[in-house]
Design a protein that fits this description.
It is built from two helices and no strands. By secondary structure, it is mainly alpha-helical. Helix 1 runs antiparallel to helix 2.
Length: 56
């Protein structure tokens, strides 16, 4: 699995956790989804910055 696919999978899992937590009124599940989403975003930014630096 490529890193880009892993980031997309993590973002999808995050969205699923947030939606499920909202529907079933589970704040822990919703918070877990938010944390996972922030992790996926930050990982994507780090990978993008590293690829830009590698191109220079």
């Amino acid at each position: 699995m490529k890193l880009g696919q892993a980031i997309s999978l993590t973002a999808g899992l995050s969205a699923a956790c947030i939606i499920t937590g909202s529907i079933f009124k589970q704040p822990i599940l919703k918070n877990l989804g938010e944390l996972t989403g922030f992790g996926a975003i930050s990982l994507g930014v780090i990978v993008k910055l590293n690829s830009v630096n590698a191109d220079k």
